Every structure is written in structure tokens, then in C-alpha cells.
Amino acid sequence: xxxxxxxxxxxxxxxxxxxxxxxxxxxxxxxxxxxxxxxxxxxxxxxxxxxxxxxxxxxxxxxxxxxxxxxxxxxxxxxxxxxxxxxxxxxxxxxxxxxxxxxxxxxxxxxxxxxxxxxxxxxxxxxxxxxxxxxxxxxxxxxxxxxxxxxxxxxxxxxxxxxxxxxxxxxxxxxxxxxxxxxxxxxxxxxxxxxxxxxxxxxxxxxxxxxxxxxxxxxxxxxxxxxxxxxxxxxxxxxxxxxxxxxxxxxxxxxxxxx
Amino acid sequence: xxxxxxxxxxxxxxxxxxxxxxxxxxxxxxxxxxxxxxxxxxxxxxxxxxxxxxxxxxxxxxxxxxxxxxxxxxxxxxxxxxxxxxxxxxxxxxxxxxxxxxxxxxxxxxxxxxxxxxxxxxxxxxxxxxxxxxxxxxxxxxxxxxxxxxxxxxxxxxxxxxxxxxxxxxxxxxxxxxxxxxxxxxxxxxxxxxxxxxxxxxxxxxxxxxxxxxxxxxxxxxxxxxxxxxx
Lengths: 259, 231
Hints:
The complex is a heterodimer of chains A (259) and B (231). Helices cover 67% and strands 14% of the residues of chain A. With 259 residues, chain A is α+β, with helices and mostly antiparallel strands. Chain A folds into 2 domains: 1-125, no CATH class; 128-256, Histidine kinase-like ATPase, C-terminal domain (Heat Shock Protein 90, 2-Layer Sandwich), CATH 3.30.565. Chain A has a 5-stranded mixed sheet with strand order 1-2-3-5-4. The N and C termini of chain A lie far apart (74 Å). With 231 residues, chain B is mainly α. In chain B, α1 (3-27) runs parallel beside α8 (183-213) and α3 (64-88) packs parallel to α5 (120-143). The chains are: A alpha+beta (259), B mainly alpha (231).
């Protein structure tokens, strides 16, 4: 190799190295920009999702408050008015020396009904059986209560080892099941509802199936399902609606357990 | 105006740029984050060595001896700088590279018969390690979140170092063969090295000036608390 060839090789080698370095710099900076853009999009999706969840939580809360307010006003309130009216009648009857037995019966009935309604409201807010006897008993009670109505045949198989972290987790899971049943009663026109709990490794698997009209096609979700989604999120779980089922609806929920 | 003129001009400008970068660091040290201190020292040492080599050459004293000290100090300071950056990414600095560099630096000094000879292999090896570190640094920036506000300057530094070392690695590798050439082609080839050195130090100087003009509040480390989900 003569000198000029050597110089040429050196210059070419240096040029290749410089081009290679520039190429690396461009490659890394474009990759970084692309990855950051993807991260931003994902973050935006997360933020939107959180917003939606927050919205849905507030809506659910407001709806629940509205329902409680209505029940207190329409049911308990009206019954207390009846009692108030009957007390007036009772006072007059005593003054006139009339028979008070019938009025007292009315008062007692209204009082019993008021007590029952307030108990129902309080039970709906926090079922006492859940805190006293645990989630399995709460499901049994729920199953019996629904089956007593005769509208739908509900089967809850909850014979699993419950390894939930705390009472709040139990309550969330209970509300999820309530929401599923509510959905079946309100929208699905189902005759049979089956809910199975199975423990697979460190996952609690909830499989729901009904024989109703099924979910509408598309990605639409009502307030109830949004509420369900929030609770699944709170439990760090995941859920899936199978919209392809020929008859009825199928939902799978997976929740991590703490051993 | 011949090649010698351009070579000298580029040399003076390069010395000027590296001394200027060192001065920016000296007078505005507080504008730089603690992670950049070792790199600042490297720029400082670089400026001093450039001046020293220039003065020695002016008085016709062989200045090759300067490189004996420059290479290990450069390797040490840039290695420490990379250590700081990899720590910022919560990653471990690849220690084996440090040991390879150390072996190269210490080992080669035993095999050199005279001090006038250039440590070609040491220099090439060290540069190869530093190129690898630059690529590794870029890779970290791509796949992980850098949690501090000085990321732009760090990337500018990586870019400058990568260009500088990759542009001159072949020159150091074939240093002995180049030395056998006539003076004019030799000068022309080393002009490439000076050019790469100039480009790198110009990029560093621009990065330094930008940092000084828009100093960050490094204490708040906003990115570590807001936009870094991994934190």
C-alpha cells in the first residue's frame, strides 16, 4: 500500500466513523422522541380514563344520595307525616273520649314500616352481615333475598378461601356482585344468573353468566358498569365483558389476592 | 495561505474554544448541576493541557509527554461523569470498562521504551471505551426516563464526545503508520483530528453557554416528582 492509498483509507475510515456516529445520534434522538410521544399518549389515555372514573364515581355518589334522599322523603317522611296526623287524631279522640285502638294500630304500623325502611336503607349502605359474618354469608343472604322475589334464579358459588386484604376489599367485591345482579334485573331480563368464584394461584376469579338479552354490541358502558369498573380498578383487578356470547351475558373479573 | 496556515488557525481557534469552555465553567460553576462537576473538571483540565501543550510547542519543547498525563486524567474524569449519569438512571456503571481502561493505561506505560513515543494502543483503547459509554448513555436516554433537568446538556456532551472520539480513533490506531508519512500529508491527516476536537469543544461550549443563560433550579427536580411515573 502506498502513502496516498493509506491516506485515502484513513480518510474514508474517519468519514465512516463520523457518519456512523451521526447516524447513531439521529437514531437515538428520533427513537427517544418517538418513545416519549408514545408515553405522552399513554399518559393522556390514563388521565382521560381517571377523569372518566372520577366522573362516574361522582355521578354514582350523587345518584345514591338522590335515591336515599327520595326514600327518606317519600317513604320515611310520608310515614312520619301519617304518624303525626294520627297523633292529632289520637289527641282529639282522647279529648272526645272515643275509641283510640284503631288509630294506635295505624301509628304502630306506620312506625314499624318506618323502622323497616330506615333499616333497609342502612343495610343497603353497609350490609351488617358483611361486617359481622364475612363475605360468604353476605353472598348467601343476597342470594336468598333475590331468590325470594322469584324474578330471577340466582346462584352464587362462593365456597372459596377468601384472602382479601381488608373489609373495604370485601365491600367492593360485594358491591361488584350487587352491581352485576342489578344489571341483570334492570336491563338483561335474565331468568337465571350464575356467579362463580374460583381461586387460581394468587387470583380470585369471578365468572358471571346470565341468560338475558346480553350486552349491546360496541364499547358502550352505562353508569352501573362504570361503577363496577371503578371498583375492579380499586381492587387492582381486571375485567372483561364477552359480547360475543350467543345468549346472555358473560363477564370475567380477576382480582389479585394477598396471601 | 497553505495547509500550515489553516492548521495553525484551526489549532488556535480550538485552543480558544476549549479555554473559553473552561472559563465558562470556572466563572459559572453554580449554574451546573452536581452531576456535571466531573465533566466540568475535564473541560478545565482539557483547557489547561491545551494551553500547556501550546506553550511547550512554542518554546520548541517536546509536548508529547502531556498526553501521558492527559489520557488517564481524561479517562478518569469522563468515567466519573458517566458514573454520575448512570447513577441518575438508577443503573450500575459498567465497572469492567474502568478496569480495562486502567489495565490499558498502566500496562502500556511498562511497554513503551521511551517517553517520546505515543501511547497509541492506550489512547485507542480508552477512546473505544469512551465511545461505548457514549452509546450506552444515549441508549439509557432512549429507554429510561432521565429524572433531572440537565438532560439536554448531558445529551449535548454525549454527542460531542461521540463525534470527537469516533472521528479520531482511527488516527490514533494508525498513529505509527501516519508518523512515517511526509510532513504535509501527516499535517493534513492530523488536521482532521483538530477539526473533530474543535467541533466537539464548540458543541460543549454552546451547551455550556445555553446552560449558563438559562440556569435550571436543580434543587426542585420537577421531572422527578411530576412527569416520571417510575419514580
